[in-house]
Each structure stands twice: as structure tokens, then as C-alpha cells.
Write a sequence for this structure.
């Protein structure tokens, strides 16, 4: 169970302690493990004069033969924007509401994992998170990579493959590749059927022993393209991006 009240909102790249001008945000929620295979969670946010948001998730792991598993996951956000909220994908200035939901199924056997996911956005505005002093982190959905596939009325589908190299004699090495395609995106004043797609790859190595045990190095690449109507003026624009992450755990006590 978690609950809290915040009166300032500062992102990691900001110097000012309240550059996002948060008045007051109240958060609450709980995560419950029903048994070894079934988990559920709910969290809520009320950001004064900005928005009210709710998140729910259910995850179930089904055991199969030969130590294989099939994992089902359902998650959703519902957001009601206040009149003073900032949105960039609204098609009207009325009562702004959004519901974005996703379902996924992942099959795991040995060192292989394959996931299929479907994500859909509904409402009279896109899922405009990262604004309105909401903390910028509320995007726990399967189709979130460089693009989050959160356009107004957007639908998206994904296929992901993950390989653990431990069975091949290289413990700690992991590769993930995915392709996501989004369609039916509404862009105000331009179109109701813009598209976007992303090809994602990541290689990660985690040190297994020695003084650097637990440290990891990740190299990530995203190839992203969108239709003309959904370029920079509406979203992030065509992008080829590389990212390198070095994570070093530090034990203080």
C-alpha cells in the first residue's frame, strides 16, 4: 500500500525545484499478490487543477509442460483532464477524457521468450502524460519504447523476442528485439489515420561475479518512422537513436 502528497515537481534535468508549477498532487494505491501466479495493482493520482488519473494492472502466469510458461497481462490508464490542463492532441476544448489499455501474452521456454501485445487509445484526447506536473513516469504499458504509441485514438500491435544467452554458455548476456506498428492516429486538422512504427533492439550484459557483480551495460537502438501528418509538429518525428546505459549498484549498508 502506498499513499502520499506532493507540493513540488522537479524532473532530473531541471534545476528549479518546482519548474512544473505543481500546486498539490495526492497519490494512492496498492499491489496485491493473490498467489504465486496472480498479481493485481491499482494506483491513483489527483493533481490539483490539472488531472485525475487511475491505473490498474492484472498479471497471470500459467505453467505449461516442460517448464514453459504463458504470461497474460492487462493494464489500463484512465485520465480526466481539468479545464486548465495542457494537452497537445485534443480535437476539441470540451470535457477531456482518455482511456488507454493494453493486453499482452508472453510465451517462455528455456532461454526464449516471445510476446505479442495490443494497445488502444480511446477518448477525445490522446494519452498526454509527462505534462501537468504528473511526474512524467506513468507509462507502464507494453508498447512503450522510444515511442509510447499514445496518439489520439491510436491502435498498436507488437511482437517482441528475448534471448537469454545463459544456455549458450554466456551467462549475463541478454538480447531483446521488438517491432511495434501504430495506426488510426487522429492529428487535429490533418487526418484520422496517421501511422507510426518502431524497430527496437537492445543488448545487455550483467556482470555475474567479482567486485563489479551486478553491474550492467546496455546498448539500445531504435529505428522510428511516422507518416507525414504525425511528424515533429505532432510528435517526435523520424528518429534513429542510440542509447548506452551503465548501471552500477552501490550498497551503502
Amino acid at each position: 500500500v502506498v499513499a502520499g502528497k506532493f507540493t513540488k515537481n522537479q524532473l532530473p534535468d531541471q534545476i528549479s525545484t518546482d519548474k512544473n508549477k505543481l500546486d498539490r498532487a495526492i497519490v494512492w494505491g496498492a499491489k496485491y499478490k493473490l498467489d504465486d501466479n496472480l498479481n493485481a495493482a491499482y494506483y491513483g493520482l489527483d493533481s490539483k487543477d490539472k488531472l485525475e488519473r487511475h491505473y490498474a494492472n492484472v498479471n497471470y502466469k500459467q505453467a505449461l509442460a516442460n517448464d514453459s510458461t504463458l504470461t497474460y497481462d492487462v493494464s489500463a490508464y484512465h485520465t480526466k483532464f481539468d479545464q486548465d490542463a495542457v494537452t497537445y492532441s485534443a480535437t476539441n476544448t470540451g470535457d477531456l477524457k482518455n482511456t488507454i489499455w493494453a493486453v499482452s501474452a508472453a510465451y517462455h521456454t528455456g532461454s526464449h521468450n516471445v510476446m505479442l501485445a495490443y494497445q488502444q487509445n480511446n477518448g477525445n484526447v490522446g494519452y498526454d502524460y509527462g505534462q501537468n506536473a504528473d511526474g512524467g513516469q506513468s507509462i507502464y504499458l507494453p508498447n512503450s519504447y522510444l515511442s509510447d504509441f499514445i496518439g489520439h485514438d491510436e491502435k498498436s500491435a507488437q511482437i517482441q523476442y528475448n534471448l537469454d544467452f545463459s544456455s549458450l554458455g554466456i551467462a549475463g548476456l541478454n538480447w531483446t528485439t521488438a517491432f511495434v506498428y501504430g495506426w488510426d492516429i487522429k492529428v487535429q486538422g490533418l487526418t484520422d489515420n496517421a501511422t507510426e512504427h518502431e524497430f527496437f533492439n537492445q543488448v545487455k550484459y550483467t556482470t555475474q561475479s567479482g567486485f563489479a557483480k551486478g553491474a550492467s551495460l546496455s546498448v539500445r537502438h531504435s529505428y522510428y518512422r511516422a507518416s507525414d501528418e504525425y511528424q515533429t509538429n505532432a510528435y517526435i518525428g523520424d528518429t534513429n537513436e542510440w542509447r548506452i546505459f551503465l548501471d552500477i549498484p552501490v550498497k551503502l549498508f
In short: The mean pLDDT is 90. The domain at 32-247 is CATH 2.40.160.10 (Porin).
